[in-house]
Structures are given as structure tokens and as C-alpha cells.
Amino acid sequence: MAVHVVGDRPSLLTQVLAELRNEKLQKDRHRFRWNLQRAGFLLAYEISRQLPYLDAEVRTPLGQATVKVLAEPPILVSILRAGNAFLAGAMEAFDFADVGFVAAYRTEHTNREVEVQVDYLAVPSLAGRIVILLDPMLATGSSVILSYEALLFRGQPRQLFIMALIASEYGLKAVQKRLPEAEIYVGAVDKELTARGYIVPGLGDAGDLAYGALHG
Ligand code: URA
Q1: Mean pLDDT estimate for the chain
Q2: What's the pLDDT tens digit per position in 126-173?
Q3: Residues in Cβ contact with 6 at an 8 Å cutoff, skipping those fewer than 6 apart
Q4: Which H helix or E strand runs over 101?
Q5: Ligand 1 atom 2: residue of nearest CA
Q6: Whose CA is nearest to atom 4 of ligand 1?
Q7: Residue 117, pLDDT score
Q8: Strand partners, 199
């Protein structure tokens, strides 16, 4: 399936991404979270253009209008921790969506095969549904791949979207290989990935910037 690099064309998303990457502006945690939320809204809007719609009729004060409405609510699944501010924006866009949560922790930083453990899942039934999996920083791709595989105990989705703010080339390839059915929407693709699994230039640790450092 396709990879959509939404930031390849200048838009409000590229403006928001510029602010998120800026180390001076990152010092304002509230602004960082707000921008993550805005990016979540804008990327969710891009995905909305690819969803199924139905014709419907609504009465306006002046007559009858034929309108297009979403055929079904998607399920948004946020990968904790940084996924949550991103999720807040996606929930603004899809305010009727069902929402699930998955926690994926990195347990080793020895090489690119960073070990990721999935240990918390709270998701509705996914069988036959449209699922949008949210991970702002798609670094090695392991969090997305392992989270999705763990989610499948709740049924096989009909369609899978992956929504990321920044992906590394390496992570993107890994996800395309393991989840070829996924339609991937990403703000930007960066070339490098460090041995500790950080995207370069990236923006740093999105979870720490949004919520505070866990270590040290
Ligand atoms: N997670 C982050 O927050 N940043 C990275 O660069 C990689 C993973």
C-alpha cells in the first residue's frame, strides 16, 4: 500500500512541524503538546480524504441538502506515551471515533533492533473495522509493528492506517515490509537513525518533550 508524505507539499502541517523541531520553541512544553495535537488533527484530516462516505440528506432552514457523511467511525489506537497528545488532535478531527490504547516500551538500546515490549492493551473489537494506529515518531518501526501484531487478538481490521509525524527511512521500510497492507500517512521522512533508535534530525524525544523526562 501507499506511503503519503504529507509534508512534501508546504502547508500548515509543515509550519507546525517546523515549530515542533525547533529546540528553542521546545522549551515551552505546553506549546510542544499543542503543536503535536495540531499535527494530529491535520494528519487525521488527510486520512479522512481516503475513507468511505455515504450520501445523506439533511434539512437546512431553507431546504434539503444532499451531503456526504462518513460511512463508519474509525478506531483510533494510540501508542503510549507520546501518541496521546497526537491522539488528542486526531480525536478533534474524528470526534465520533472509538479509541484504544497500547503501551510499547523500549527495553534495550544496544543496536537498531531496539527491544520493544508491549504490555498494556485496551482496545475495542477491531474485527472488520477501519483502524488508525498513531505513533508520532516512527523510528525503528518496532513499536508500530509489535503493537499492531499484539492488537490482532481483538480481531482482524478491514483497513489499517498508520499515522506518524516523523519517520526514519529505516523504520518506514521495516513497517512496509511487515505490514504491507497498511496505508501510511507521515508528516516527514528523515534519513538517519542513531544506534539508540533516535531519528536524525527528528525532534528529540517526543514523550519527554510533551510530558517531561522519565530518567535523570
Ligand atoms: N521516539 C522519539 O520520541 N524520538 C525519536 O527520535 C525516536 C523515537
Answers
A1: 94
A2: 999 999 999 999 999 999 999 999 999 999 999 999 999 999 999 999
A3: 13, 42, 43, 46, 185, 186, 187
A4: strand 98-106
A5: 205
A6: 205
A7: 83
A8: 193
Counting DSSP H helices and E strands in the chain, the numbers are 6, 12
Report the 10 Å Cβ neighbour count for 113: 10
Question: Ligand 1 centroid to 55 CA: how many Å?
Answer: 41
The set of protein residues with a Cβ atom below 6 angstroms from ligand 1 is 82, 137, 139, 197-199, 202, 205-207
- Rounded to the nearest angstrom, the distance between the alpha carbon of 205 and the centre of ligand 1 is 5
* Domain annotation for the chain: domains and CATH numbers: 3-52+66-211 (3.40.50.2020)
Residue 82 CA: which ligand 1 atom is closest? 3
Residues linked to residue 12 through DSSP beta bridges, in sequence order: none
pLDDT tens digits, residue range 77-122? Answer: 999 988 899 999 999 999 999 999 999 877 765 555 567 788 889 9
Alpha helices in 152-200 (DSSP H): 169-178
User: Ligand 1 centre from 197 Cα, in Å?
Assistant: 7
- pTM higher than 0.90 for the full model? yes
Q: From ligand 1's centre to the CA of 25, what distance in Å?
A: 17
